Amino acid sequence: MSNAHGSDDIIIAFWTDCGISALVADAPQNHFEMAQNKADVAVPEGIGGATEPQMTATRVHAASAPAAGPRAALPHHDDGARLLQDDHPQDAVMDAREMARAAPDLPTLHAAIEAFEGCPLKATAMRACPGEGPVGAPIMFVGEAPGRDEDAAGRPFVGRSGKLLDKMIAAIGLSREDVYISNVIPWRPPGNRTPSPIETATCEVFIRREIALVSPKILVPLGGPAAKTLLRNDTGIMRQRGRWTRYMGDDDREVDALATFHPAYLLRTPGEKRRVWQDLLALRARLESAHGFASL
């Protein structure tokens, strides 16, 4: 019995890392029978299948629902309701906005991110990964979300993508210590899945405040998700990259912006590095001509 329970714990831990927040069935399911009982079946958010037939599925709230045995709820998370995002998500966005606006400097903002409880990604991540770099940095690079290495280190862009980003920065005569690096989402999504719209909306409040506090000369969104979020458009990264535009901050301050491919994409598609090199040349030229960085 002890070996069986140990196996269950391993499986449950794996499911937790994949973002599953509640178990709704232990037995194989007859999907033909489920189709006949469709009116009685509810599909929980975040799980690609349906629930056990002839039974209405209910979301598990750790704070309000009684435990249904050792397999009824996943371990490690005291608040299952936050994982399912069904409790007034707009309130979380408003709370984040108030905390961000109240932060007068980067250390205070990063402390607010650490303390924020309104984003369910915090429950599945090891730690927050706020941005790092100097205030007034000439360039601010912003990706979408941390990966596994970043989650473990609590720092942005420290894995293979980070090493490539360091080389990109060096190509324009700067070092990692000269620029500011961050992500739209400060917590790693489980399994590196795509953040949900409400997760992005909640965390966007913090990154916009971070941009305002850093006050960079040029903003460089890395990849399509970051570009769409920060530049507030639906244009794909293939059409956005290499085109100068303006980032409009919440304080109405405009910043030169140049989107380019994410380093993770370049690792998968090395042939696109030539386009990024063109973007880097344009970035360096703009710094030299418009912002007085003649020593680059």
Helix-strand makeup class = alpha/beta
Quaternary form: single chain
Secondary-structure element series: HHHHHHEHHEHEHHEEHH
Strand arrangement, major sheet: 2-1-3-5-4
How many DSSP helices? 13
Q: How does the major sheet shape up?
A: 5 strands, mixed
Distance between the termini: 66 Å
Low-confidence stretches: 38-87
How many individual β-strands? 5
Residue fraction in strands: 5-15%
List keywords for this structure.
single chain, alpha/beta, five-stranded mixed beta sheet, globular
Q: Can you describe this structure in just a few lines?
A:
With 296 residues, the protein is of the alpha/beta class. It has helices at residues 2-17, 31-36, 80-84, 89-101, 106-115, 121-124, 148-153, 160-171, 197-214, 224-231, 237-240, 263-268, 273-290; strands spanning 139-143, 180-183, 218-221, 244-248, 254-258.
Describe the 3D structure.
The chain is α/β, with parallel strands linked by helices and 296 residues long. It is built from 13 helices and five strands. A five-stranded mixed β-sheet has the order 2-1-3-5-4, with helices on both faces. A hairpin with a 5-residue loop joins β4 and β5. α4 packs parallel to α9 (197-214). The longest helix has 18 residues, at 197-214. The chain is globular and about 60 Å long. Mean pLDDT is 80; it is low at 38-87.
